């Protein structure tokens, strides 16, 4: 499943698909970079269908955090399963993201 990008309110929602890894992260990184360069400052990663996040995926997320912070925005996440949350927590990434139970709640936190 390819990644999906869509607007909800004033945020860009990214659904990475089953995996955010070395195979999928280049496409997501390119699209996010383009969108952020055109002014998108609020990004929400919706991990509803995502089972796995690799270091390449973490890199994409970190780049988004840094780039949106320069624009006064931020990055949030929602619907992360226990495995994805554990990976983010072990890497110390959870503190960098606003985490909501729904996309709408996450957007409100940004």
Features:
110 residues, alpha/beta, five-stranded mixed β-sheet, two-stranded parallel sheet, 4 helices, 7 strands, 41% helix, globular
Structure description:
The protein is an alpha/beta fold. It is 41% helix and 25% strand. The chain has four helices and seven strands; from the N terminus they run βββαββαβαβα. The protein has helices spanning 25-37, 55-70, 82-90, 103-109; strands at 4-8, 11-15, 19-20, 42-46, 52-53, 74-78, 98-100. The strands form two sheets. It has a five-stranded mixed sheet with strand order 1-2-4-6-7. Strands 3-5 form a two-stranded parallel ribbon. α3 links the parallel β6 and β7. The radius of gyration is 12 Å and the shape is globular. 35% of the residues are buried. The mean pLDDT is 95.
Q: What's the helix-strand series? A: EEEHEEHEHEH
- Principal-axes shape call: globular
Q: Which blocks of ≥5 consecutive residues have pLDDT under 50?
A: none
**Which strand order spans the largest sheet, edge to edge or round the barrel?**
1-2-4-6-7
Which sheet architecture does the biggest sheet show?
5 strands, mixed
Secondary structure blueprint with pairings:
Layout: E1 4-8, E2 11-15, E3 19-20, H1 25-37, E4 42-46, E5 52-53, H2 55-70, E6 74-78, H3 82-90, E7 98-100, H4 103-109
Parallel strand pairs: 2-4, 3-5, 4-6, 6-7
Antiparallel strand pairs: 1-2
In short:
The chain is of the alpha/beta class and 110 residues long.
